[in-house]
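ugh ok so i messed up the first submission bc i forgot one of the chains. this is the corrected input, ALL of the components this time, i swear. 851 residues overall. if the numbers dont match what u have on ur side tell me asap before i send this to the collaborators (the ones from the other lab, u know who)
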Amino acid sequence: MTDTDQIPDKALEKEPNAFAQMMRMLWHDKVALVAVIFLIIVAFCAIFGPWLLDAAATKQNLRGRNSPPFDMAKGWLFVLGGDALGRPLFARIIVAASNTIMVATGAVLCSMVIGSTLGLIAGYTKTRASQIILRLADVIMSFPSLLLAVIVLYMLSPSVTNIIIVLAITRIPIYLRTTRAEVLEIRERMFVQAARVMGASDMRIIFRHILPVVFPTLLTIATLDFAFVMLAESALSFLGIGIQPPEITWGLMVSQGRPYLTNAWWLSFWPGLAIILTTLSLNLVSNWMRIALDPVQRWRLEIKGKKQ
Amino acid sequence: MSAHLLEVRDLSVEFHTVHGQVKAVQSVSFHLDPGETLVILGESGSGKSVSASAVMNLIDMPPGEITSGEVLYRGKSLLDMTGEERRAINGAKIAMIFQDPLAHLNPVYSVGWQIIEMMTTHGMPSDQAKQRAIELLLRVGIPDPESRMRAYPHQFSGGQRQRLMIAMALALKPDILIADEPTTALDVTVQAQILALLKELQAETGMGLLLITHDLGVVAEVADNVVVMNAGEIVESGPAGEVYANPQHPYTKRLIASAPGRGEMAEPVKAPGEPLLRLEGLSKSFGKFEALKDASLTVMPGEIVAIVGESGSGKSTLAKTLLRLEEPTSGEAFYKGRDLFKMSQKELFGMRRDIQMVFQDPTQSLNPRMSVYDLISEAWVIHPEILPKPKWRERVAELLGLVGLSPDHARRYPHQFSGGQRQRIAIARVLALEPKLVVCDEAVSALDVSIQAQVIDLLDGLRRDFGLSYIFIAHDLPVVRDFADRVVVMQGGRIVEEGTVRQIFEAPRNDYTRALLAASLDPDPEVQAKRRAARLELEVLRP
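and heres the new structure output, hopefully the right one now
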């Protein structure tokens, strides 16, 4: 009886420890800490932005057309200036975060999950299925992704869901090929053989032994892809088959500001900066996570703490 | 007084690491004269390679730093030279060969090109260099050198690659050849050939040979003088025979005592009853290549059967097939009377508990992302019937104690342990499943001699306490001699001889067994001298 009582205790003890340890390692890497805070702000904007500022972001004010930034005379919402129809850029960026992040996150997550699952299957099994998966990936890769998007979105209506699907499909081969290549190598490693000798099932070998080793690579690709997807989405919007006004995304804002670049640079600059900062933060966080999740590398973060 | 060919005086090297300064080498002094063979003997981490790297200016600075001392070549200080002057000496006057020749040959150039390049960079006209390259290849024993010049590194065997490295090192007739573990990665018979070649070439050219090794047998085979290093310091030096016969320092004594191959040979167990495992006519082909041909073998309960052979002899294939990591082409394997190869996946799963394997390299066989606790308890996740979950923590601590580690180690990760400790963790993991038969695939080959002895003791103790049987796969004959009950010798996928340890070591019947025994190196220089003579006789028999 005492034995069974002890276990939940220990489990409880261990859980906050792991979390506290992660927090401590994050605290020691100040750059990653700033990046995490920035991403939390972006996430907050994406969730609550439309609800708080939607009215302000769509209200036209023709007297404030292309009003320059840092001019507080028109109120704090115009701190980043106004767009071609006199709408406050600050509010628009916050509202646009919602669509942008949804499309990017959705597409990246879908392609990562589908791609790496197919990659695991293709790498781990030696059956015909793996050949079929690979040829499918070749087909997708050889087909220009923008052309695919144009065809699909021309036939279907350009909604957020459809854009996510199209972007996800075009990015699947990246994850698939990387995962497969890594799995092929890891599968032959000694510790996988050792697990097999112990009688571990295929599922256990894949999820307990192979996936944790592949995961950091996938995470790094995903963060890089995040920026790519944001820009691809803006390219689609520019062609008129992506998100359409009055809906807004950062990419759309950049392309809307393009005609005014010579006399009102801020129209494109601020949403562009939002894209850059978000991807940069994601990269920094993924870099930190890769080290924090690897027991062999973890000391780097722990040592840093001691020195400071 | 005339200057020595190479003299290292009071050399200290430090490395700056996150854990502070690490003194890799402290006040090391030695010297080398023409025609002399000086061996630096030490276990991993003793600073033997760092000392040699300092001579070749191969230490990365930073993080390394030579904090004191000097390296003199014919009385000139090497450390004070400019990069230009060093390049003129490196390669031309002081050459070096390494443990892993494949890593040091460029895979995209033909070997001839690489040897010629070595000479042309030091200013030899290319037609002359080509002529010399052919001579060299012939000299180091590469047959048909003119056509082999155009071959690429992967087209040579390990021993031939080391010959190529030697040819390259000798291209410019150096005064000093530094060899860092030149034969560690090679089979015993090849090792003997390479060492013999080095000695011959030394006799021809009169160069000084500085050889670095962890193997007392190599010392006995080639050394005039020996320097014993431990933890960055020289603990003892002197003529090889004298150091072996009359070691002064406790470390040297311990090293010599732990050298395998001189213990009592086991008397054959007359185990009654059923064999634990019986292999019948086991074969395995990969395409046309037959890795294993008609192998038959029995293991009695509590018995240690050693499988000995060189690389490519099929010994690892045998183990893998037995564990069903590879499917056999034909043959039967009866474990307690049931055929392993006819078992369904479900029956096999139950079997997995009974037959376990300890792999060669614990660095690779332990998942680097799992803590020791996770590694050991994984056995019970897979086979929950062994132990109820509440008892896991206690049992992990118990198992760690059993293999000589502390229970606190459970929370650490594999990279925080040394090689020997990692192998203990791997053994603890195997014991967690309470197996009956453990297959050790070169389980001690990657370990230092003293650690090797400890692990062997541990395995032996476990046999006594739990009645385990072992299939002990090794290329190292002395270890086998001490540990095994019965020996099976394999060559080219076939079992060529089988017998008790005494039969194999004292009265080998097969020529190959005899060649293998003659090629294995004894730590005693006197015994080794006799073996050398015996080997010369056998060479007439071998193609």
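quick check: The longest strand of chain B covers residues 20-32. that seems consistent at least. The CA atoms of residues 114 and 410 of chain B lie 49 Å apart.
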